[in-house]
């Protein structure tokens, strides 16, 4: 199936699930909840049943192993006792010294012992030197006797006492044992009775095997378990330490699934069917009043309002909707009556005006006065519009500040949670939260940029700038991003050196490239520049969707986007071009656009003749230096918001620092006096409780530390305000100003900077400033 076909199928399924009557949708939602509940209950029952059957199965395997062990012990005891009785037989001992007896009854008698208790065995009679005299005919078949076996027998005879051992031949284990033959006339050993038995022939279970002491055996197969049972054997075999090992499946999965899973499935299907039918019936009953409202609204739309009323049943939410609908109908009736009354009054007024038409010339002076009053009303309207614009600015500032507080706490707590989780499976959820928080932070940072530009706190730092270096950085960054969207990106190399602010100029060009990348789905993007008699023209050309002519003047307004009615965050925030327009006006540049709907657009930035003939070595480098890695120290956090204070505390402690937390200036001085560790870093919120500010808290802390002879710490002021006057006041303090929300990497940079060497109090100015920072982009 092609990608287009897959998309159409998904859209059709979505329309089917969301369209139709509320009863069907209510039943569908209930069915999905029932499926989830059935899965959870079924899984729980399955786990409980599985564990019970597994425990029962393990008990059966252990009981079976014990039974097989008892059977094996009986076979071994019978074998050893039978051979011992043969060794004590005086007739057999006499036959050792009587050749006639050997031929007459020894050999036929031994042939009857080819098996003992159904176990194949090789028997050999030897003299006192270990020379074979007779056997039972099995020494070359089931248990072949080897020269090594006879050598072991010779050593046993020399020792003069019975013995047993286990040997392995070609991967098969054999039991070797010997009993001494005592001649009754001399009461002395005249020979030995040697026997050899396959070890596993003594085990009646096909999955069981025998092991000796110190023998590990092969590991169990996948999905299997083993049970070891020590054997109680005669004293002759006691030194071998025989153990029976039984291997069996670890769990009876096949037997369990054969009846449990079908039973659970049948019960779940029956329950889901009953749940769906019941939910459908309940939903139909609950939406009866809604259907009546729908029919009434259709009747009014087609035939007009003629005094219809909705029927009210009960006192629930749907009944409340019916009452509100009736109230709306009453309001409509009142409006119709008022229109009729006004129409009659309008007719009367028209007649009066017609009668007074002849007096129009006498009213010329009155008309002039009316015109002047209209002009004054226009002036008042302009003033109202200006006040509305100022109110909008203050509203954005207040909303931004109120949003930055909880956003700051979310960013800090999320970063601390990500560090705590590490490789935990839930870390992916934290990554999703951080992605959403990044989108919200970009919006707040863009609002802050607009506010700072409106406040006039951004001052250009004009210097020599290599335009080619800026193009190279943008080309390296956006070539791969464009390739991921399946489009091309190319920048035309140049060697121009401009007299401009490097950071602000790159910000303008970057925003134009970002805008082109968002609205171009095929084709290519071209970044280049042209030098003419009036200066330099930097152009960004794309083959995107284009902009209709009626929208060209409004695209540089805040939050205005032509083709993003759904407010898709992937297409930006609607602030990028507004920032471009403000930065261009700040630097004295001119930006304009030419666009062709369906074919593409071309944004042009016109810069005056500021080209400098400077060498490449004199060009400013706008890349900030790397900060030192943070080391262990002490930080003082002053914030009246407990969530932000807790988030900063957790995050800084995760970097190995000690944290002193306070909600205001008195608490900060108290914890500073109680702690024996002067802070290396002070982070204070600009706006504290009861009208206090973080600037006052920092100055009080520095005064206390200077009086104690400690060196002054790195002091940072956090603010969530975006109002222009607030930004001017904060940056006029001379301290480092950072705007909320700050991320974990910003905190790490502050800790690294605070860890560096700090000048002595006598050498350090009263208020240390790192310079204003333009957050965003």
TrEMBL record:
Gene Ontology molecular function: histidine phosphotransfer kinase activity; phosphorelay sensor kinase activity
Histidine kinase domain sequence ranges: 398-611
Catalytic activity, reaction form: ATP + protein L-histidine = ADP + protein N-phospho-L-histidine
Entry EC no(s): 2.7.13.3
Domain HAMP: 284-337
Keywords annotated in UniProt: Coiled coil, Kinase, Membrane, Phosphoprotein, Transferase, Transmembrane, Transmembrane helix
Renumbered residue ranges of the record's region Disordered: 757-777
4-aspartylphosphate modifications at: 685
The UniProt record lists the keyword Membrane: yes
Entry superkingdom: Bacteria
Protein name: histidine kinase
Record organism: Azospirillum doebereinerae
């Amino acid at each position: 199936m092609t990608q287009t076909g897959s998309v159409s199928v998904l859209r059709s399924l979505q329309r089917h699930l969301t369209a139709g009557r509320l009863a069907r949708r209510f039943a569908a939602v209930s069915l999905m909840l029932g499926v989830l509940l059935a899965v959870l209950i079924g899984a729980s029952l399955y786990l409980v049943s599985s564990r019970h059957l597994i425990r029962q199965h393990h008990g059966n395997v252990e009981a079976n192993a014990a039974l097989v062990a008892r059977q094996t012990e009986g076979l071994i005891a019978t074998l050893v006792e039978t051979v011992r009785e043969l060794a004590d037989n005086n007739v057999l001992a006499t036959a050792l010294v009587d050749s006639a007896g050997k031929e007459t009854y020894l050999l036929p008698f031994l042939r009857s012992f080819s098996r003992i208790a159904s176990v194949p065995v090789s028997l050999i009679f030897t003299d006192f030197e270990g020379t074979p005299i007779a056997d039972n005919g099995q020494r070359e078949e089931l248990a072949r006797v080897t020269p090594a076996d006879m050598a072991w027998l010779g050593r046993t005879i020399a020792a003069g006492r019975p013995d047993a051992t286990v040997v392995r031949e070609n991967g098969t284990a054999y039991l070797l044992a010997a009993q001494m033959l005592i001649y009754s006339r001399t009461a002395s050993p005249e020979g030995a009775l040697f026997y050899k038995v396959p070890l596993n022939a003594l085990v009646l279970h096909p999955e069981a095997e025998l092991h000796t002491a110190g023998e590990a055996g092969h590991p169990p197969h996948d999905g299997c378990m083993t049970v070891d049972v020590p054997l109680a054997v005669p004293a002759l075999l006691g030194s071998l330490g025989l153990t029976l090992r039984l291997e069996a499946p670890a769990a009876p999965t096949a037997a369990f699934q054969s009846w449990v899973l079908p039973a659970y499935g049948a019960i779940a299907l029956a329950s889901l069917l009953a749940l769906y039918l019941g939910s459908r019936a309940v939903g139909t009953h609950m939406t009866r009043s809604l259907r009546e409202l729908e029919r009434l609204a259709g009747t009014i739309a087609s035939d007009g309002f003629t005094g219809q009323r909705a029927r009210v049943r009960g006192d629930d939410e749907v009944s409340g909707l019916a009452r509100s609908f009736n109230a709306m109908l009453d309001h409509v009736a009142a409006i119709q009556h008022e229109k009729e009354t006004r129409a009659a009054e309008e007719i009367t007024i028209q007649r009066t005006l017609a009668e007074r038409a002849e007096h129009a010339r006498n009213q010329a002076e009155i008309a002039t006065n009316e015109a002047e009053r209209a002009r004054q009303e226009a002036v008042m309207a302009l003033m109202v519009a200006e006040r509305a614009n100022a109110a909008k600015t203050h509203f954005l500032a207040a909303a931004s500040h109120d949003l930055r507080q909880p956003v700051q706490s979310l960013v800090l707590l999320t970063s601390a949670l990500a560090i705590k989780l590490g490789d935990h499976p839930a870390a992916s959820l934290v990554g999703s939260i951080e992605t959403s928080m990044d989108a919200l932070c970009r919006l707040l940072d863009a609002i802050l940029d607009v506010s700072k530009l409106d406040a006039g706190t951004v001052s250009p730092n004009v210097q020599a700038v290599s335009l080619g270096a800026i193009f190279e950085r943008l080309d390296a960054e956006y070539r791969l991003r464009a390739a991921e969207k399946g489009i091309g990106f190319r920048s035309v190399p140049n060697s121009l050196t401009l007299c401009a602010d490097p950071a602000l100029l790159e910000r303008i060009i970057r925003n134009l490239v970002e805008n082109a990348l968002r609205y171009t789905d095929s084709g290519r993007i071209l970044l280049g520049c042209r030098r003419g008699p009036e200066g330099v023209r930097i152009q960004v050309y794309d083959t995107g969707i284009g902009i209709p002519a009626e929208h060209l003047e409004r695209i540089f307004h805040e939050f205005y986007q032509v083709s993003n009615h759904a407010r898709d965050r992937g297409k930006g925030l609607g602030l990028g071009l507004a920032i471009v327009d403000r930065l261009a006006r700040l630097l004295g540049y001119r930006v304009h656009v030419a666009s062709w709907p369906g074919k593409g657009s071309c944004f042009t930035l016109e810069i005056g003749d500021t080209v400098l003939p400077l060498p490449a070595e004199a060009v400013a480098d706008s890349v900030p230096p790397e900060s030192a890695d943070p080391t262990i120290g002490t930080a003082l956090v002053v914030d009246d918001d407990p969530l932000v204070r807790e988030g900063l505390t957790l995050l800084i402690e995760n970097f190995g620092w000690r944290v002193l937390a306070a909600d205001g200036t008195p608490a900060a001085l108290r914890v500073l006096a109680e702690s024996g560790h002067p802070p290396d870093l002070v982070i204070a919120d600009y706006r504290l409780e009861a009208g206090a500010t973080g600037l006052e808290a920092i100055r009080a802390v520095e005064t206390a530390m200077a009086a104690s002879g400690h060196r002054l710490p790195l002091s940072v002021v956090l603010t969530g305000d975006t109002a222009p006057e607030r930004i001017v006041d904060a940056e006029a303090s001379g301290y480092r100003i950072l705007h909320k929300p700050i991320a974990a990497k910003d905190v790490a940079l502050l800790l690294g900077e605070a860890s560096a060497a700090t000048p002595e109090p006598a050498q350090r100015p009263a208020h240390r400033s790192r310079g204003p920072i333009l957050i965003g982009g």
